[in-house]
Amino acid sequence: MTAAELMEAAREARRLSYSPYSHFAVGAALECADGSVYLGANIENASYPATNCAERTAFFRAIADGKREFRAIAVSGGTGANEQSCPPCGVCRQVMREFCKPGFAVFFSDGEGGFETFTLDELLPCSFGPEHL
Ligand SMILES: [Zn+2]
Q: CA-CA to 82 of 20 to 30 Å: which in 26, 105, 112, 129?
């Protein structure tokens, strides 16, 4: 799947968002090494800290399904129909770090109709991972 195709899947996944408090709907599309794609959306909670991000929803769905190797993730977010810049939060970057290689590709909406491209290592330099334990 191309980066643009994965981004489109993330944009479609925004419709799965449960975000009655912030109205900031986020969708994610995670491509596994075997080519399968898992969608995720942010899931808010009346107890705000219990909220889960779209990226982690996608990862946890895939991991619970037995997947352990991943190629890339795309993330799209924004309020209502507007797509805004939506880089992954620090918690999600750390979850990616648990399962992904430094070159894992991360695409996220840039707020101008396109997307930005980073590697996990660029987004989370000098990070703590499984090899440190
Ligand atoms: Zn997050």
A: 105
